[in-house]
Amino acid sequence: MGKMRNTKKRRSDISDIVRNIRIDSIFLVNSSCRRSEGDPRSQSPLRISVDYDAKLSSKPGRAFSVDASLALSMFGGEDASLLDVQATFRICYSMKEGGGPEKPSKSKLDEFARKNGAFNAWPYWREYIHNTLARMEIPSIVIPPYHYGRGPGKIEGTVTRRKGC
Question: Per the structure, how many domains does the chain have?
Answer without folding.
Answer: 1
